[in-house]
């Protein structure tokens, strides 16, 4: 009898899956660089002599008042454009659960455990800092729990590290589960008032949208009005409008009805909307969300002593690292698995620190918790920016120290690539 095979953590996926994920990571990396640029421009503009112009632009109102859609540009970015981001997240989530690693409990255990650990520990740290803080500070407990995959990938691009594909894939899968948990948190804990009638009415266009996509209809002139109607009714119900994007994404089928060449409907929509999400929606939201006036927030000295800021910074930097690293170690400990060949726990620590870059969803939750434009919301922005920057710097130190090792792994894969363009390690993995 052959000995039982020891399962590897952070191992490679199949070659077709790795190619698909590489395309996703490329789009998210470009979007992440645009996000960083947009946030930097907003921060510089808000603290310049022309800062009033930035605030006037953010507060400019557009939209029909009769439908309660006379929103500011900042609100349109948070409620409208981010719905595109969450639509793409919904597509990716469904694909992972139907055809990806998350359908296999053995493979799903690690990213799910890491994502849960990376949310629970930061939340506990935030609560510890704000348990006795006045002014409803505890309502921001979920702010340091989110990971911004685009921002994290932008950091990887900027520091020019040759991070192996398996580690990038783990980071992406962790972020997918993180998005799912963040969506649940927003829907369950940040809905102040609920209007049941619009919410029930939203099921009508959502159901028609689901019926059409199940029949593999791709006509935008049929699907787009139904998607907009769903978004408007969910917005009217009091549930955050971005949840509509997730529900629409979940409605799209992943598996092709008939085997054949070409992408399925969910993959087709991902190809169409991911560049719009990564290249437009998220950077525009970052532009309107990151423009905090450092002097207007009471000065950095006063702001940094706010328990809300301390909880966010410590939660993102220490909480995420402890949660992701600790959960990964526990999975290894109780499943008797071992890290994939060539990887070490320093690599896990680097990824855990990188997961502490929380931006898009963290800023969104801050607005929902304390109200856009409030003094506490300004403090949240400073805390998220500070914590994300510190996490990025620490991750850079760890990952750059391993870059020579990563470069050697990538060189070995390229050297062992046959004429078919598939590295030998993936062919050997398929044979096993």
From TrEMBL:
Tell me which domain of life the UniProt entry assigns to the organism this sequence originates from: Bacteria
Chemical reaction(s) catalysed:
Na(+)(in) + 2 H(+)(out) = Na(+)(out) + 2 H(+)(in)
Q: What is the protein's major site of localization? A: membrane
Give the record's GO biological process terms. regulation of pH
Question: What family is this protein classified in?
Answer: Belongs to the NhaA Na(+)/H(+) (TC 2.A.33) antiporter family.
What InterPro entries does the entry give?
Na/H_antiporter_dom_sf, NhaA
Instruction: Write out the annotated subcellular location.
Output: Cell inner membrane; Cell membrane
A Pfam family hit = Na_H_antiport_1
Q: Which Gene3D superfamilies match?
A: Na+/H+ antiporter like domain
Chain ranges passing through the membrane? 21-45, 65-88, 108-129, 141-159, 171-189, 195-212, 219-234, 240-255, 276-296, 308-331, 343-370, 382-399
Q: What is this protein for, i.e. what is its function?
A: Na(+)/H(+) antiporter that extrudes sodium in exchange for external protons.
Q: Which gene encodes it?
A: nhaA
Species classification: Bacteria, Bacillati, Actinomycetota, Actinomycetes, Pseudonocardiales
Q: For this UniProt record, give its keywords in alphabetical order, as a comma-separated list.
A: Antiport, Cell membrane, Ion transport, Membrane, Sodium, Sodium transport, Transmembrane, Transmembrane helix, Transport
Q: What is this protein called?
A: Na(+)/H(+) antiporter NhaA
């Amino acid at each position: 009898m052959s000995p039982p095979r020891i399962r590897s953590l952070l191992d490679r996926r199949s070659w077709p899956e790795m190619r698909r994920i590489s395309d996703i990571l490329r789009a998210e990396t470009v979007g992440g660089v645009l996000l960083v640029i947009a946030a930097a421009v907003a921060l510089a503009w808000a603290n310049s002599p022309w800062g009033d112009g930035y605030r006037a632009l953010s507060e400019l109102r557009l939209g029909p008042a009769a439908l309660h859609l006379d929103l500011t540009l900042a609100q349109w970015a948070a409620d409208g454009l981010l719905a595109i981001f969450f639509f793409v997240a919904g597509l990716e989530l469904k694909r992972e659960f139907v055809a990806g690693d998350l359908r296999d409990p053995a493979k799903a255990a690690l990213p799910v455990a890491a994502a849960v650990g990376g949310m629970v520990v930061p939340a506990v740290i935030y609560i510890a800092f704000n348990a006795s803080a006045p002014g409803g500070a505890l309502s921001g407990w979920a702010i340091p729990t989110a990971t911004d995959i685009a921002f994290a990938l932008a950091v990887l691009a900027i520091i020019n590290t040759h991070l192996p594909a398996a580690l990038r894939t783990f980071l992406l899968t962790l972020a997918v589960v993180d998005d799912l948990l963040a969506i649940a948190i927003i829907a369950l804990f940040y809905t102040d008032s609920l209007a049941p009638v619009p919410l029930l009415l939203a099921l009508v266009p959502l159901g028609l949208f689901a019926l059409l996509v199940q029949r593999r209809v791709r006509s935008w002139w049929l699907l787009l009005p139904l998607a907009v109607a769903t978004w408007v009714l969910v917005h009217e119900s009091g549930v955050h409008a971005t949840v509509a994007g997730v529900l629409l994404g979940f409605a799209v089928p992943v598996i092709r009805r008939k085997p054949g060449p070409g992408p399925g409907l969910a993959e087709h929509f991902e190809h169409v909307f991911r560049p719009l999400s990564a290249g437009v929606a998220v950077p525009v939201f970052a532009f309107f969300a990151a423009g905090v006036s450092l002097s207007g927030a009471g000065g950095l000295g006063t702001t940094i002593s706010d328990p809300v800021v301390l909880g966010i910074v410590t939660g993102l930097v220490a909480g995420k690292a402890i949660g992701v690293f600790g959960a990964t170690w526990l999975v290894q400990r109780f499943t008797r698995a071992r890290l994939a060949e060539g990887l070490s726990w320093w690599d896990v620590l680097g990824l855990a620190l990188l997961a502490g870059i929380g931006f898009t969803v963290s800023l969104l939750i801050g607005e929902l918790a304390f109200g856009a434009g409030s003094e506490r919301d300004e403090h949240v922005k400073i805390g998220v920016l500070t914590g994300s920057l510190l996490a990025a710097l620490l991750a850079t130190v760890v990952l750059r120290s391993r870059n020579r090792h990563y470069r050697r792994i990538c060189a070995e894969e390229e050297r062992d690539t046959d004429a078919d363009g598939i590295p030998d390690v993936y062919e050997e993995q398929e044979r096993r």
